[in-house]
Task: inverse folding
């Protein structure tokens, strides 16, 4: 975005003596000023907003409501009370992450023993992990066994309390 | 896709790291200190999900048949216990209206059935044979 800067001092011309060549206001001087103003206006955001404009800001603060009619993409950290990461994971059949957010890998330590890694470390490990398992059996239980700033670990057990893999595991991390 | 397999000092089986939205090479840092690792084909690793704890530390990955048989035996014991449980309850709890003699006869049949499976498992020479036995048992 460019700001407008006046290039000709027209008021100063009034102080010049009659006959001074610089006292004349030229059409090109006026054109240059108007063109600079037009360029500056065209690169500024509408104060009242505009559906045709896109712009970036370093920081954005609103004293009232914020309405988003499109998608929201967050590449940085979010404030407290938000979902910080999530993953939908097949831990028995294809052994793959089906979809996720801020998760870059999973580690299978042994049957039913999985660890997940965040893309960037959290500020602390005071977050909450909740999830479901039981894609292949309703008798499976899921426990969160460790939480670190870089990721967390879960264990899935069957009805005999033996650790075992399971098909569909859904996990969300809230902080 | 490629994954990382690594040795674990506190377990007999290998750890497996599967990438998501990140190159596998950048995940090597997740391998615990003191562990050896290899980057291998994912399809080879997960070709037999039932026997993941029996994969070998080789490239390409194969299945250690001794470990695979042990996994199958564990499943055999679990299945046998699950099948036995209703009859165990009848005998142990002396449930009124239930025939303890018949329950004991059923237990004998189950014991024989799983003794046969034990022999079959020990005789297997391929992973596919073990897989077939597991699929035929109560899970």
Result:
């Amino acid at each position: 975005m460019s700001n407008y800067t006046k290039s000709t001092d027209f008021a100063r011309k009034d102080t010049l003596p009659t006959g001074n060549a610089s006292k004349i206001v030229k059409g090109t001087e006026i054109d240059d000023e108007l063109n600079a103003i037009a360029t500056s206006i065209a690169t500024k955001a509408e104060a009242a907003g505009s559906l045709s404009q896109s712009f970036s800001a370093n920081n954005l603060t609103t004293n009232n409501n914020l309405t988003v009619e499109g998608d929201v993409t967050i590449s940085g950290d979010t404030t407290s009370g938000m979902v910080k990461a999530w993953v939908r994971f097949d831990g028995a059949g294809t052994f793959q992450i089906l979809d996720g957010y801020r998760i870059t890998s999973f580690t299978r330590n042994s049957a039913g023993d999985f660890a997940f890694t965040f893309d960037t470390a959290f500020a602390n490990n005071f977050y909450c992990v909740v999830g479901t398992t039981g894609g292949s059996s309703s008798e499976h239980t899921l426990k969160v066994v460790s939480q670190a700033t870089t990721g967390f670990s879960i264990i899935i057990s069957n009805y005999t309390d033996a650790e075992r893999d399971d098909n569909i595991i859904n996990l969300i991390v809230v902080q | 896709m490629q994954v990382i397999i690594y040795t674990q000092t506190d377990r007999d089986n290998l750890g497996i790291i599967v990438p998501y939205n990140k190159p596998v090479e950048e995940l090597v840092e997740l391998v615990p200190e003191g562990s050896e690792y290899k980057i291998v084909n994912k399809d080879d690793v997960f070709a037999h999900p039932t026997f993941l704890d029996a994969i070998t530390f080789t490239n390409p990955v194969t299945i250690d048949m001794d470990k695979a048989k042990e996994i199958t035996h564990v499943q055999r014991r679990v299945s046998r216990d699950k099948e036995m449980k209703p009859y165990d309850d009848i005998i142990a709890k002396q449930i009124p209206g239930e025939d303890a003699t018949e329950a004991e006869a059923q237990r004998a049949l189950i014991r024989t059935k799983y003794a046969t499976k034990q022999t079959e498992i020990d005789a297997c020479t391929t992973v596919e044979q073990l897989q077939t036995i597991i699929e035929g048992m109560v899970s």
